[in-house]
Amino acid sequence: MKVSYFPGCTLKNKAKDLDAYAYRSAEALGVTLEEIENWQCCGGVFTTSQDEVATKLSSVRALKYAADREQPLVTVCSACHNVIKQTNHAMQTNKEFSAKVNRYMANDGGYNGEAEVYHYLEMLRDLVGFDKVKEAVKNTLKGKKIAAYYGCLLLRPSKVMGMDDPENPVIMEDLIRALGAEAVIFARRNECCGAYTSVESPETAKRNASAIVENAKAAGAEMIITACPLCKYNLVKNGADIPVVYFTEILAEALGVKEDTDGK
Amino acid sequence: MQRVGVFVCWCGSNIAGTVDVQAVSEALKNEPGVVYSANYQYMCSQAGQEMIKAAVKEHRLTGIVVCSCSPRMHEATFRKTAAAAGLNPYMVEIANIREQCSWVHKDMMTGTEKAIILGKAAIAKVNLNAPLTPGESPVTKRALVIGGGIAGIQTALDIADAGFPVDIVEKQPTIGGKMAQLDKTFPTLDCAACILTPKMVDVAQNEKIRIFSYSEVTDVHGFVGNFDVKIKKKARYVKEDICTGCGACVEKCPMKKVPNEFNLGMDNRHAIYIPFAQAVPKVATIDPNACNMLKNGKCGVCAKVCAAGAIDYKQKDEIIEEKYGAIVVATGFNPISMDKFDEFAYSQSKDVITSLEFERLTNAAGPSAGKLLRPSDGKHPHTIVFVQCVGSRCAACAEKGKEYCSKICCMYTAKHAMLTRDKYPDTEVYVFYIDARTPGKNFDEFYRRAVEEYGVKYIKGMVGKVVPEGDKLKVQASDLIANKQLHIDADLVVLAAAIEPDKSARPLATMLTASMDTNDFFTEAHPKLRPVESPTAGVFLSGACQGPKDIPETVSQAGAAASKVIGLLAKDKLTGNPCVASSNELMCNGCSTCERVCPYGAITYIDKEFRMPDRTTKIRRVAVVNPAVCQGCGACTVACPSGAMDLNGFKNSQIMAEVDAICK
């Protein structure tokens, strides 16, 4: 299976390993991630002001690229996914917005929300299947106690993202179980890590991040996984004393392709 | 040719507001067969009915068309009118120009046009109507009550009181249901056991009542007055008639670590057990999933200590077949699972409990002997947060909760909060609510007392998250009136879980062909006027299986259901519905299609001799409908490939005439 892949800016800088592990793991599962040519920044944040068109154009171009190839558009970074999925939803449901956008899209041909956007986790669940992932595991993670940290952007707004129940998600826990490890459920798994407040008010980010890590540890976690570079940054920066890694890393480890990517 | 009279009803302004009734009666005057047409303000009133009767006499009418409300509303009324005027009641047709016309149209022109078309269709049909005579069937004078909670108990006692035998089928080892688990009852705060257990004893001692405990209904056939029911009596491995309930076996049983379902798993019971001290029947039951003797043949202690010799490891499930005239469904409710509400940390902390668990914690016969202690460490909780509407009124999250209000939670939470403050005045009690819904006799006064006399802190707003941290539960909530976020360090969080119908209700509804709503509550025959009858004749509803209900309401509905059953069983014969299927033997080719589609098992095949034109005889296989079992659903008439099956009162020719009249 071939899919269009939107890595996003952080995955080419701070979060190179998130990207590399995603590639190799997909390959091991028989999925080729075809990186979108000349992709641009997703826009960073999905603004709710509807006259804000320019920041969403790059997302629309990525969506159009996948739609033209009749491929699902796969993302990894929580923030990119959030922006692209919300933009696609706006293109499907907000006529005024889509008309405005299409005035800028004249040279590329029009776009009306035809693409299907999948987060990498959704790709594993819906396109590959967790049972297939389970079969492909070479190094089981049995005995490890791993907590899935969702953060805020991955699941919300839930009606648009349509990934999982934002209060009681299971998708990452199901992945952890498929890889053979024990999924640790903790209360703060869907609370905000502090996000951009780490710039303006580092204490706020510290308070949130520490509470999350402490809560995960108290629930018995030995490791935290996340899909979001900013979440990882905040948790690690604010003194997490258990490993915080991307979900693609444990996936690569379990599939036996981690070593291939370590040198990259 | 029929002589048809048309009667157009105004229904006050309900119909006349959007339909020109005068124009309708004028237009229908010229339809084939019509010899009289009139309109009147309320056709269903005495004066309206008299008008119909007079017209029948004066114009020698043979058929009647009433253009009025839905036939579900007044078909029976007008059939009686026709009968009183000397006509066959099945010569009446209703054109529904209210629900299907005036109520859904705003424009007088289009409304009137449609009313005329509907009237024409009914006239076309009545022209082909033939008099029908209903058959009669006998009534088995015994009632079945499914479910042995307070609803089933009260229904059974009331039926037995009138002198009719009743059987109660209860799937648990004892009757008593949810009420047996409660501590106090609102608004009078009398103890649940003190008012329930005497009733349970009454049931046990009543000669007219038989209890099939640890049993389930597995099959229902037949029809009103004549139900054939199969009841599976599950093996309890104890001979019920010999066991004295002394409890010696329970004491000696070495298997002590089985979660006790009566205390909602908050303590343990033995593999052989009596659910609680006042159980009826007071008989031990062996849990086959926990008993060593049943699992691997090693133990047998209970058999050794039983002085009565009641233990029987070889006991098998037993099927009992019985006939009943009426069936009462009283399958009750359960709190919903908290799996999908883990934002309240139910799976993460033992100190997050449901309200039913709270009942057991405060019950003197419960796991903590009535002392309010935290399940995690046995300490007294100093701050308790009650969360209402967990899964109720969940319109925005229907995939995890219920859209309806569970009705009982506001009152029992007020009760819990009040009792806590009364017994432990040093405890801070918060209640988070969307609305406090406390209508009912002495209910709102009760809730006000909790707030005003007992100082319970009611906060309008919802809890967003509960985080277990150390030995505290960090509660994050919003106070909608003060418009601020609250953070409370609680010792115990109590969730008022929504209630839903028992899981056994859905398969039972299929067996009974009784209808349910989208939430799996049984549907009543009429939401206002027939609240305790199901639309399936002979099946009645009692208690929370029909919708969320508190005890007073359940008991009154149980009594109402009983009186309906008594009314039915008091009859010696029942008049059937003549609108049943019948097969034209000359056209039937014996293909069995109708037999396969019949949901009631009303069709059988016989080999019948036919005389051929050349005076020889030929034996052919043909379908025969049992009119007593047929419910007139019409499935067979649609399925029959040769057109031999027809439904009396709804013959294919009549339906086609209606369609033709509409399309003309």
Number of H/I helices of chain A: 13
CATH architecture of the largest domain in chain A: 3-Layer(aba) Sandwich
The class by helix and strand makeup of chain A works out as alpha/beta
State the helical fraction of chain A: 40-55%
Query: Could you name the CATH class of the largest domain in chain B?
Result: Alpha Beta
Characterise this structure.
The complex is a heterodimer of chains A (264) and B (664). Chain A is α/β, with parallel strands linked by helices and 264 residues long. Chain A folds into 2 domains: 119 residues, Glutathione S-transferase Yfyf (Class Pi), Chain A, domain 2, CATH 1.20.1050.140; 127 residues, 3-Layer(aba) Sandwich (Rossmann fold), CATH 3.40.50. Helix content of chain A is 48%, strand content 11%. Chain A has 13 helices and 8 strands. Chain A is globular and about 55 Å long. The two termini of chain A are 24 Å apart. By secondary structure, chain B is α/β, with parallel strands linked by helices. Helix content of chain B is 28%, strand content 25%. In chain B, the strands form 12 sheets. In chain B, strands 10-7-6-18-29 form a 5-stranded parallel beta sheet, with helices on one face. Chain B has a 5-stranded parallel beta sheet with strand order 20-27-21-22-23. In chain B, α6 runs antiparallel to α19. The radius of gyration of chain B is 31 Å and the shape is globular. Chains A and B meet through α10 of A and β24 of B.
